Design the sequence.
């Protein structure tokens, strides 16, 4: 039974992603965001549980990728599709019209799928990442969604502009499948020396979120990418 615990945590991540998709379709953006937060926590916790009960294995790795595909691939792709659709057809949706022009937002899902498959076979990504990890990309997308829903800094019209959605989908997608070196948060100890980049980012991210709320959440990923481009090493 203990060996199943990590897999159950992983499957709860997947179920949370499914619920998030439904919440987005109903316009329950706050609930969708809470589901995303749970998925992030579950994605982190399954590894801890696996090590605690000594139950790591190939099945768990495969389940983790499949769960991430839903929570950090399909769900954020649907967020971008929704934002683009709102900009094109209004909050009530396209009615009986097939929303072809909004479908490019779902390209995020294709990029995420490629990213996850690439990560599974890339032996270089042990202490750092190559390309933006899908959870990080999803943080940016949910930051956009929540900033839109609360009209933070009067950005709702901007964030639902279809051009913004297309550009965001393309740029995030390219970052996910790129070979750009990105620093991770895996640490050997809690000392400042050797972790300066990580601690500096965490401090700046806290300030962004405190003062800019969900807009700051999205900007955290922008900052993460910029810092990685400047300072990340293998």
Sequence:
């Amino acid at each position: 039974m203990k060996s199943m615990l990590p897999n159950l945590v992983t499957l709860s991540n997947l179920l949370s992603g499914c619920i998030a998709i439904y919440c987005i379709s109903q316009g329950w953006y706050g609930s969708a965001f809470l589901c995303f937060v749970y998925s992030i926590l579950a994605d982190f916790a399954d590894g801890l549980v696996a090590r605690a009960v000594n139950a790591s294995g190939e099945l768990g790795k495969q389940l983790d990728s499949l769960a991430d595909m839903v929570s950090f691939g399909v769900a954020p792709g649907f967020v971008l599709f929704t934002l683009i659709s709102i900009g094109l057809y209004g909050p009530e949706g396209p009615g009986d019209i097939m929303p072809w022009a909004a479908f490019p937002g779902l390209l995020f899902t294709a990029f995420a799928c490629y990213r996850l498959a690439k990560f599974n076979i890339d032996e270089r990504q042990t202490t750092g990442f190559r390309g933006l990890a899908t959870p990080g990309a999803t943080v940016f997308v949910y930051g956009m969604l929540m900033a839109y829903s609360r009209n933070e800094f009067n950005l709702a019209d901007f964030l639902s502009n279809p051009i913004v959605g297309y550009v965001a989908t393309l740029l995030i997608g390219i970052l996910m499948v790129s070979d750009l070196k990105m620093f991770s948060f895996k640490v050997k100890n809690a000392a400042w020396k050797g972790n300066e980049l990580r601690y500096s980012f965490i401090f700046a991210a806290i300030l962004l979120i405190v003062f800019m709320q969900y807009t700051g959440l999205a900007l955290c990923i922008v900052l993460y990418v910029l810092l990685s481009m400047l300072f990340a090493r293998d």
Remarks:
- The mean pLDDT is 91.
- The radius of gyration is 18 Å.
- The chain has eight helices and two strands.
